[in-house]
Structure formats: C-alpha cells, structure tokens
Predict the 3D structure of the following.
Amino acid sequence: MAAQGFKRLVRRHSEIGIFLIAGLLVVFFATSSDGRWANLYNFATILQVTATLGLMTLGVALVIGTGEIDISVGSTFGMGALVYLWLALRIDPAIAMLAAVTVGGLIGAFNGWLITKTGTPSLIITLGSLMIFRGIAIALTDGFSFSIPYAARGGFTYWLFGGGDILGFNTGLIWLLVSLVVLMILLRATPFGNRLLAVGGSAASAHSRGVRVDRIKFSAFVICGLLAGLAGGLEAGKLGFADGSMGRLMELQAIASCVLGGCLLAGGRVSLPGALMGAFVLSSIQSYLVVMGVRPQWFILTLGVIVVAAALGDRLLRQWAVKR
Amino acid sequence: MSGTPLIQVKNLQLYFGAFHALKNVSLDFNAGELIGLVGDNGAGKTTLIRVLCGIHKPTSGEVWFNGERVEKFHPKLAIDQGIETIQQSVGLCDNLSIARNFYLGREPVRRIFGIPILDFKKMREMSTRVIREFGLRDNVSADDEVERLSGGERQSVKIGRAVEFKNRVVIMDEPTNHLSVREREHVNELAVALKEQGLLVIYITHDIFQVHKLADRIIIMENGEKIEDAATSAMTADALEEVIRQGGRKVEKREAV
C-alpha cells in the first residue's frame, strides 16, 4: 500500500527523484567526511554556490519549458559579473546590478529575437552567443581581472548584492528565494505560465488556440538572460573580482541541474524546486570533493561520474514508478 | 439568402512551396447556416478552414468577415472575432490539465495587487460542467492532464470548449472521429442546435450521407478546388456522392476545355 502511494507520488512529481538523491548524498557526505563537509560554514558556502548556479538554473528551466535550450548563460553570467564590478567601483552597486541584469536581459533578447524571427534551432544560436559573449568578456578584461579594493567593499548596497552575509548566509540566497517564489507564481498561476507550458507541450496546439508562440519564447529567453546577469553580478559581489573566464562551463551545470530536477528537455514539464535541488546537489558534490582533498585532475571526472549515476538512479526510480 | 455573407472568400490561392493547396476558391458562408464541407483526403478542406481560423495565410485572394476585409491572419485574431474551431490534429496540449487546456489563450484572471492570477475556481467549475455534460468517465477530473484521456474524450473536450465559447462561427473538422455512435449523435445534435441559435456552422467530413441529413448546403472540394456548392434541398446525397466520385475527372475535363 505504502509502495503504491509512493509510486503515485513519483509519477505525479518528477522532481521526487532529485530530492531523494539529495537526501542520500547529504547523509553519505556527512557520515563519510568526518565533519569536514557537514558544518555550518561549509553549508553556507554550498548555499552561496547554489544561489548563483540556482538563479541561472531557474532561467534555463523556463527556456527548457518552452521546448528550447539556452547554452549561452555561462557567458551571460560572465558579462553580468564584469559589468557589475566595473560600475560598482565607479558609481554604485545598486546601479551596477541594474546594469548587469539589463545586459543579461539584452543578451537574452538577442538570442530570443534571432531564434523566433529566423526559426533557427536555439542550440546553434545560443552556442554562437556563448562564444561571442565569452570572447567579449575576455577582450574586455584583456587577460587581467576586474576587482574592487577591500576599502570599497562596504556600504549597504554592496552588502545586499552578494557582498555580505545575513545570519551567516550570503545575501545572494535572498535573491534566489525571492526569484524562486516569483517564478513559481509566474509559471503556475498566471496566463503567461499556462501559455509557456502549453508552448512546450505542443507549440502547434498552443498556436491554434491563439497563443503568440514567438512572444512566449522570446520572453523566456529574456527572463533567462536577466537571471544569468543577476547571478553573475552576485558572484562578482561575493568574490570582489572577476576575470574573462567567469561562469565558464556553468551553462552545462545549469542544464544538468534542470534535467536532474525533473525538467523534460523536450519541453512542457518544468519543476523549479526540482531544478534548484539539482543545483544544490551539484554544488554539494563539488564541495565534498574539495573538502575531501580530491586532487584537481580527478575532480571533474568524479563529478561527471556522480552526475551520470544520479541521472541513472532517477531514471530507474521513474521506470519503477510507472510499472504496475 | 439576403444581406452580406458572414464570411466571404474570394479567389483564394494558397501554395505550400511548390504545392498548390488551394486553387482559386471563392465561397460565401452565411450566419444561421450549417454547411457540410466534403471531399476526399487532400482535397483542401482542412487547408481552407485553417485559413478561416487564421493558422495559414493565403498566398493571394481575399477573406472578408462580417463585411470587413481580413488583413492579418493569426488564430488569436480569428478567435477574438468569434470564430471557434475544432481542429483535427491540434488544439490540446497533453501536458496540461483539462481546465488549463480549456482556457488556453483566454485564461480568466483575478487581479491581486495588479498581478493577473489565474481564476482556478472558475476554470475548474466550467470545465467540470462541460466534461460531465459530454459524458467523460466519472473518475476523470478537470485537474487531470489531457494525456490520460482517450481519443473520444479528447474530442469531447475540444467540442465542449468550442460550444462553450461559441460566438459567431463554429468550424468542426471531422468532429465525429474517434466517437461512439451515441457521442456522434450528440455532436450532430449540437451542430444543428448551434445553427438554430443563428451561428454559422461549417462541418467537415468524409461522410456525405451523414452530413446531408444535417446541412443546409454542401460544398465539395477536390484537389484544392471547389467543384460543387449546392443546397441539400436541391441535390440528394446519392447525387452528391456521384459528384465526389466523378470529381477528379470532371476537374480534368474543365481544365482541358
């Protein structure tokens, strides 16, 4: 009976798998690391990393929800970080963050406009912009890094955008939670969300019901860019410096987080809490490998193996759930 | 019939690449008429109605609605003007609930601090009433995803939705596909009832005998052309079937002259 009820739960909620995996990993990491992983300081670090990766993941989840993909977010993140640092030092962190988010939104608009106007697959367009904006970031920094001197790292607005802590947790976490709530309402409880999921489920059907498919897709890319720009700004605020390689390969982590979290790559099925949990799992694994002193050359390999194992575990769970 | 036709199609041409899908089609459709649009597969019936409901833009020719020329083609514009269409292959998103599909594109909202929030109560109540009326299984609820439904149930949701939002025109593309005998009768009764309420009903089917009983007028298409347009009082179903059977040859003859 209990097993039947659980099966039903798994069938209805594709994100259950990632929550179970997260639970198992937390127990395993905590018991096998002799306190080096499971302590408040380390949790705060994991959550800070989760905050920036998570913001990016939420945006990618919306784009995946429409049946498209955005692999340019790593570069958008990098651009956001550079814009934030450059302006935070010269004007004010609040204006700088506004500019970073705007630049992110513009990159999203660039992607969305090209994809919807020309009908070119989003994979190739965003692959192009991944390279274009990485190139611009590298050119802007010219091999050096942007940084803010310690003396300038004060003030409320600097604190607010990732540059400070509240109760031991980075302020970026606030932005993640606010974004999560806003986007969950947007996706589940507004006409826009209903149409976004409809477009991902069947663009032709949505079109026949009068949905402006192109506008929905365009909006999803813009929101995705805004969030990646925000995440980049927060990360820059946390570190106080950034170079041209900021956010490199993060786009792949964001996509992996979405898929692990129960978002269907074909579109139409999105779980924002699941995607966020995916980002948490990836951040936790990275942190575990660091505190366990896994040598850098094995790091990425181990991470990859755990990701594949987690994905297979999730798949097995779902296959079990659909069996009678 | 007097007055301006509700929908007027003049010299409509539509190409898909090199394929000539609609060949110089001219037609009038009046309010309060039930029209049977008949023809074989590939005759251009669905293409024609997809122009009327805004999915396809014609290559040339004119469409007039209620005395005004239609300049832009998009399903949203057609729906806003009161054209409801029951499409054959599209219209439902499997990943959404029945209630969400029902209101897709015209979601009812309540404003909370100015933010449009879906009115779930209204969505659920109305779609529940419709699916009960159309006799879906008792264990199907408005919150269930369309994925769960059988072919007949999907069709019922589409028809129920079109009837619920009926406005001026209801276009039905093969509405009785996937339906049981009793469901079929229900749909046919609905089509007649809509017409009697003064709506224009365009009923697309293969089955000339079935639609002849319901329709005021039958239009036959063949190879993207209109080959017959006759009142049902003027021609028997057998005579019309003969036209369909001869259709291809008749068209060739006309072209040869």
Summary: Helices of chain B lie at 45-52, 75-80, 98-102, 120-133, 151-164, 181-196, 208-214, 237-256.
